[in-house]
Design goal:
The chain is of the alpha+beta class and 398 residues long. The protein has helices at 76-89, 116-121, 139-147, 160-173, 185-188, 219-228, 242-252, 273-280, 313-316, 380-393; strands spanning 3-7, 16-18, 21-30, 40-47, 50-58, 62-67, 94-97, 129-133, 152-156, 178-181, 197-203, 229-239, 259-264, 286-291, 325-326, 331-340, 345-352, 357-365, 368-371. The protein folds into three domains: 3-97; 116-291, Rossmann fold (3-Layer(aba) Sandwich), CATH 3.40.50; 313-393, no CATH class. Helices cover 24% and strands 31% of the residues. It is globular.
Length: 398
Amino acid sequence: MPHIQFKKNDLIKTPIQEDGVFFDFCAKSYNFTDKPRQTEYKIAVKYKEKDFLLTLREKENTYMAKVDNITRVSPIDIVKEAINAYAKVTKAEIEFSNTSNFKNREEPIKEYIKDIEYFVNDFNPTQEVQVEVGFGSGRHIIHQALENPDVQFIGLEIHTPSIEQLLKQISIQGIKNILVINYDARLFMEFLKSNSVGKIFVHFPVPWDKKPHRRVYSDEFINEALRVLKVDGSLELRTDSRKYFDYCTHLLTNLNSGRIVIDINKDLGVSSKYEDRWKKQGKNIYDVVLLCAQEDEEKKITENFDFEDEVNFEQVRKSIQTKPIVREDYFLHIEDIFIDKDGIVLLRLTFGSFNRPLSKYIIIRDNKISYYQGNPIPTSANLKAHLELKKILSNDNS
């Protein structure tokens, strides 16, 4: 990541502007955990219609300035220019820098990879949708997309090399009907419309025998799958793990409705290299298909991340817990506090789902509260954590 290291000097006097970069405030870490650590500052930046934070970390006789990981933006040149502007405005004596040798360039367009905001706000397909959870090498989803050009496929994967490999093949083969997202399937399903999906493929998921809570299949996942599936739509599991097969079959046979079809060593039109190897070893491959039998009502998500009341931070600061608040289906952890000379406060949070925790800042300015860089994604876990946070900031101990 781009950064500079320079001799200790006077901190930036905000607000100030340099080379078009506006430095809004500089907030110092407030060690409310009582754990010894380096002093750290968060410097709020507005540049090229982007809001983000720089981190200034104090060492013995030097400072290091870099982008804050939670708020980093693209293209990276924006960050480099902001760091250089900081060095210029503070007249820093630089000892090391990797921000000088670069050219302005546009961020490459990745037409077929989308972030979760796209599916929350803009995804409105006119054709049937099918979803593959954990596409791996991409052989299966590519095969399905070529065989079904009128279907919109969504591939979910959290393994970056697999994503890059699939995007490369999409480009080489000129495939137009696959969208790719790096996101947890257990959370992604919340943003699909009810009765809108034809098939959901879960092929060879990690069995997680020692950590069953990390498995894709659960009562909640299956219920969400049934909600988004059309009548006669299917949730299709394919696995080489007998334990995983037994676990999923147990979950599916406890449903109130639905039809289940089980096959052993069924041949598909496409096979991964691992599946070919397992078959040569005489290992069984299990298929469990759940067919949806009824329509569901549209899921209503109340997207409300407002903070309705003003807050006197001095009154609530001492009552903020340093340990995570853990509930059955969400958590909230206030990890750090940063305070500016003019009383601006940043709270660094991690919250939401245990499967896909979200890190954000909230900013308290003139007793008004908001999320820095915009509201979180409206998952049910994030919304519940937000309500918990509102209670804390209102000093409501009920």
